[in-house]
């Protein structure tokens, strides 16, 4: 994965901020598969580095499950908590995004539009 400049991180943060507003998300995070946090925007505060590492671990486990049960590719991972839903998307083999959704979020529309946002992130990082 290429080194991500501060200018690219600012562009990504702008895109993530737009996603938060457009879909009324509680938070959104972009990380690499090692669990290193690249960018995050959350309405609440907690240990983002620990959260990123844990999500990376979940992603790696899900990818392993896909291989074990017939070399199936991963689309998304959904984790339903008491008051939130986390959706983890693999963007590239090195990157993933986590959406932090509440009951007020416009998740149906977001799921429909997500590929466009993921493609924009890839374009920012790899150009």
Notes on the protein architecture:
It is a single chain. The chain is α+β, with helices and mostly antiparallel strands and 127 residues long. It has one domain: Beta-Lactamase. Helix content is 46%, strand content 23%. It has three helices and five strands. A five-stranded antiparallel β-sheet has the order 2-1-5-4-3, sandwiched between helices. A hairpin with a 4-residue loop joins strand 3 and strand 4. Helix 1 packs antiparallel against helix 3. The N and C termini lie close together (12 Å). The model has no long low-confidence stretch (mean pLDDT 89).
Note the overall shape: globular
Name the beta content range.
15-25%
Structural class: alpha+beta
Q: What is the strand arrangement across the widest sheet?
A: 2-1-5-4-3
Specify the CATH class. Alpha Beta
CATH homologous superfamily placement: Dynein light chain 2a, cytoplasmic
Task: Please give the alpha-carbon distance between the first and last residues.
Answer: 12 Å
**Stretches with pLDDT under 50, minimum 5 residues:** none
Q: Gyration radius, to the nearest Å?
A: 14 Å
**CATH topology value:** Beta-Lactamase
Q: SSE string, helix = H, strand = E?
A: HEEHEEEH
- Main sheet record: 5 strands, antiparallel
Measured as a percent range, the helix fraction is: 40-55%
* Total of helices: 3
Mean pLDDT: 89
Please tally the β strands and state the result: 5
Number of discrete domains: 1
CATH architectural designation:
2-Layer Sandwich
